[in-house]
Design brief:
By secondary structure, the protein is α+β, with helices and mostly antiparallel strands. Among the domains are: about 35 residues, no CATH class; about 30 residues, no CATH class. About 30% of the residues lie in helices and about 10% in strands. α1 packs across α2.
Length: about 140
């Protein structure tokens, strides 16, 4: 990436320009302005950058944590590629997003984000059930 957007400073490849010789995919010619990101907390930096056992365990299970805290989840049948190829995620067939209602009732078990909003003890129990054989963070 050798070029810089004159409006937002985004980096792009020289051949990424449109017919007007402008690159407009990020900020639409300066019409879209996003606030600067706030700096990550010290704990989050530690978990992502440290070599402590706790940080290593967090990084190994980060996808599970993100999925558990999400309000929607994607289900797919996963098949690991044979051999020592780089990890590749491919899906065959229809993709479905599973949403749970914000508030559960007698018919629906609490799921996804509502566990953390309303039922933190239930969330802990379900995570322990899911990861019985794995040490969790």
């Amino acid at each position: 990436m050798s070029e810089v957007c004159e409006f937002c400073g985004a980096l792009y490849y020289k051949n990424g320009v449109n017919s007007s010789k402008k690159y407009t995919k990020f900020c639409h010619d300066g019409k879209v302005r996003l606030p600067n990101l706030t700096e990550a907390s010290d704990l989050f930096k530690e978990l992502l950058c440290s070599n402590s056992q706790e940080a290593k365990l967090y990084r190994q299970q980060i996808r599970e944590y993100i999925a558990a805290l999400s309000f929607a989840s994607m289900g797919a049948e996963m098949n690991a590629p044979p051999g020592t190829c780089p990890y590749c995620f491919h899906i065959h067939g229809q993709i479905y997003h599973m949403f749970s209602p914000l508030c559960s009732n007698q018919r629906n078990r609490p799921g996804y984000g509502q566990l953390y909003l309303f039922y933190s003890s239930e969330a802990s129990n379900r995570l322990q059930e899911i990861y019985k054989t794995r040490k969790t963070f």
